[in-house]
């Protein structure tokens, strides 16, 4: 298994191009199952999770072709099986996103129940209850969600918790249902809106995506289309923090600044000068040490849980004491323990981390535990004295395209080495 070696200490300078959003690509690939013909998706990031979703579709008999520019054509008309096996679902929980489309389009889905994961229990009860309210017959058998339905029926769904993939599964299922479905307390994430735009391009009738009330008028069928995935706001935020933590000057290109309001506000609070245009953001720390900031995660448009770990790294070397409160997942502080091994002064109390910034971190061998945790260790490595080695970087490859190449392009000393 590969490792990342990072020698810290250089301020990052230059430009970096942001890839398509992982969390929009995955539901869009699943939604392709709803179409009556081929769909073509562009700006797809080259990531392990995308490969896993392609493999999952391939196992069902769906034809998937990928060209050298990562344009993906999905032809669902060759489907033979309506099945998501445990071995794939366990490596990627987002596999659950095939449940709604399979059930709505083919009336049949056997999808492995995802287990717990490194950041918490992460149940899918809201996905299942929503589909049941739409008339599906669902039971759990041998670790699998076995779902059967005739044509689903539109209804009013009030989600218990704001769930991103739950909202997506139900919105996808509703596109082919009989009548109108109203999803109350829907997730408002930009990736939900991107999925809705993709479904609209296929001929779906959806209003309200981006608000907490999504209304879907079911249609008889959906056709193939072409679609470009939106830029990844979490990759964008991660590179901005890389600029801030190294006291550098970085411009991210091909992004959507309006999706990062909460993150940009926090970066400004830390002392960064932020510039932005239609599709770029620039961060300039002017060589200064960042100031500590307080963060509280919550569903969009509040501060994203997927950026919490990166800001913990920033606080670890900032001037002052910062507090990070995680409200979305119950166990998302594993990176804090690894950062302590690099000299960070972090106290954990339940879902709160209190971080007293130190002048410098020191390199240590550390282990990535989940996707965003590994990003925070890379950030810490960029400013640590000496050479940090990060193991289990398959986590980072799930969600960051060519991270070492992009960081090297900004002047970081980072390389991938075989273990
Ligand atoms: C998605 C993102 C992930 C991000 C998360 C929160 C994808 C592929 N992944 O994950 O990167 O960290 O949103 O922004 O888009 N919950 C339930 N029952 C359910 C579903 C969720 O109780 O049926 C709870 C979860 O345990 C969690 C909260 O709801 O505490 C939010 O989770 P959710 O939004 O569903 O996260 P994901 O969609 O899995």
Structure description:
The chain is an alpha/beta fold and 419 residues long. Helix content is 31%, strand content 25%. It is built from 14 helices and 24 strands. The strands form six sheets. Strands 22-23-1-24 form a four-stranded mixed β-sheet, covered by helices on one side. The protein has a four-stranded mixed β-sheet with strand order 2-15-17-16. A four-stranded mixed β-sheet has the order 4-5-3-14, with helices on one face. A hairpin with a 5-residue loop joins β12 and β13. α1 packs parallel to α2 (48-59), α1 runs parallel beside α7 and α8 (233-245) packs parallel to α10. The radius of gyration is 21 Å and the shape is elongated. The mean pLDDT is 96. Bound molecules: uridine-diphosphate-N-acetylglucosamine. Uridine-diphosphate-N-acetylglucosamine is lined by residues 23, 26, 93-94, 120-127, 161, 163-166, 191, 305-306, 328-329.
């Amino acid at each position: 298994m590969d490792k990342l070696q990072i020698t810290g200490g250089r301020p990052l300078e230059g430009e970096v191009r942001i890839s398509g959003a992982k969390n929009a690509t995955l539901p869009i690939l699943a939604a392709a199952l709803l179409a009556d013909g081929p769909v073509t998706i562009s700006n797809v990031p080259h990531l392990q999770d995308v490969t896993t979703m392609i493999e999952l579709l391939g196992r069902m008999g769906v034809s998937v072709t990928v060209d050298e520019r990562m344009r993906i054509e999905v032809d669902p008309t060759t489907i033979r099986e309506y099945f998501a096996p445990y071995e794939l679902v366990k490596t990627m929980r987002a596999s659950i996103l095939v449940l709604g489309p399979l059930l709505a389009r083919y009336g049949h889905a056997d999808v492995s129940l995802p287990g717990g994961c490194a950041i918490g229990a992460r149940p899918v009860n809201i996905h299942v209850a929503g589909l049941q309210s739409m008339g599906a017959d669902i039971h759990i058998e041998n670790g699998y969600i076995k779902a059967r339905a005739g044509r689903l029926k539109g209804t009013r769904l009030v989600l218990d918790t704001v769930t991103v993939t739950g909202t997506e599964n139900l919105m996808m299922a509703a596109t082919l249902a009989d009548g109108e479905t109203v999803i109350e307390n829907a997730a408002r994430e930009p990736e939900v809106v991107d999925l809705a735009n993709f479904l609209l391009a296929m001929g779906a009738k959806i209003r309200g995506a981006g608000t907490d009330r999504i209304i879907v008028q079911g249609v008889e069928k959906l056709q193939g289309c072409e679609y470009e995935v939106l830029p990844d706001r979490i990759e964008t935020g991660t590179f901005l923090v890389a600029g801030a933590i190294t006291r550098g000057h970085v411009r991210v290109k091909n992004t959507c600044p309006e999706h990062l309001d909460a993150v940009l506000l926090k970066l400004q609070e830390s002392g960064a000068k932020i510039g932005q245009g239609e599709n770029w953001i620039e961060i300039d720390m002017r060589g200064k040490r960042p100031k500590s900031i307080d963060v509280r995660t919550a569903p969009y448009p509040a501060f994203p849980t997927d950026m919490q770990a990166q800001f913990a790294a920033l606080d670890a070397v900032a001037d002052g004491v910062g507090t990070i409160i995680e409200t979305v997942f119950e166990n998302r502080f594993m990176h804090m323990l690894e950062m302590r091994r690099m000299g960070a002064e972090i106290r954990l109390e339940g879902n709160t981390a209190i971080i007293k910034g130190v002048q410098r971190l020191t390199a240590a061998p550390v282990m990535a535990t989940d996707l965003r945790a590994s990003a925070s260790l890379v950030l810490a490595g960029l400013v640590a004295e000496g050479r940090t080695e990060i193991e289990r970087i398959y986590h980072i490859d799930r969600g960051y395209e060519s991270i070492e190449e992009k960081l090297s392009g900004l002047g970081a000393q980072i390389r991938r080495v075989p273990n």
